[in-house]
Amino acid sequence: MTAPTPLIAGNWKMNGLAAALAEARAIADGLGGTTARVALCPPAVLVHRMSEALAGTPVLVGGQDAHTETSGAFTGDTAAEMLADAGASLVILGHSERRATYREADDLVAAKARAAINAGLEPIICVGETLDERESGRAIEVVVSQTRGSLPRELAGKAFAVAYEPVWAIGTGKTATVADIEEVHGAIRAVLTTTFGDAGATVPILYGGSVKPANAAEILHAAEVGGALVGGASLTAKDFLGIIHAL
Ligand code: 13P
Which end of the chain has fewer CB atoms surrounding its CB within 10 Å, N or C? Predict the structure, then answer.
């Protein structure tokens, strides 16, 4: 079975003005001979300019969300096709911040994943338990259920990734232990192979939640970890490159 090519993606969240494109260039300039696929997901309004700034480099550009429809009366929303048209090749979907703030449920995330696939984008579908869910011993049950509900059948044969981001580890400086990460990633892998057969074994499962240069090596080398989804530490070339080169 071919091991998935690691994917290290930076989620800039609602951070970054045009001046930050220089940081994106610095990331591209510092890649060296990394074996990872590297992506940056800036706010939607920067996708086009970042795609232009990174043209000719291996760094991929992604969105942070996309609507289920291709066009229409959806004020403030962005269609997957628009992201692709602006130069994106990936899109983060179902991030816990969107699940919490906009009440995005699994079936909506699955519908967005279908739209992303139809637009030719590679979805990075996020799952992860809250602190309450972990402390009550329900982490695996919650993550398995989110994974089953958020991954539509239409992903079969397409490039996509799953990101495990425990909600309590995001932006808090806390990370899950390697043992916990391996347990959850193993459970996600089982859902992937049950749903997609052999192809499910080659889907990268990223870990996200306070990944920093100092903890990246042990996380990236854990079993079933196929890369990282990085928030705060992807905003500066120094930290993001430190993570990329920990692989
Ligand atoms: P931090 O790396 O800032 O904890 O954010 C993780 C995350 O939410 C990436 O999507």
Answer: N
User: Is residue 83 within 6 Å of ligand 1 at its C-beta?
Assistant: no
Is there a contact between 66 and 121 (Cβ–Cβ < 8 Å)?
yes
Which of 187, 206, 204, 193 minimizes the C-alpha distance to 146?
187
In short, whether 234's Cβ falls inside 6 Å of ligand 1 is no
CA-CA-CA-CA torsion sign (168, 171, 177, 182): positive
| Active-site annotation holds for 95 | yes
Residue 233 CA, closest ligand 1 atom number: 2
Paired with 229 in beta bridges are 9, 208
For residues 119-144, give the mean pLDDT.
97
Residue-wise pLDDT tens digits, 59-109 = 999 999 999 999 999 999 999 999 999 999 999 999 999 999 999 999 999
User: Which one of the listed residues 23, 67, 81, 95 is annotated catalytic?
Assistant: 95
229 lines ligand 1 (CB under 6 A): yes
Domain boundaries, the chain: 7-244
pTM exceeds 0.85: yes
pLDDT at 2 over 70: no
Mean pLDDT of 200-223: 97
Q: Which CATH superfamily is domain 7-244 in?
A: Aldolase class I (3.20.20.70)
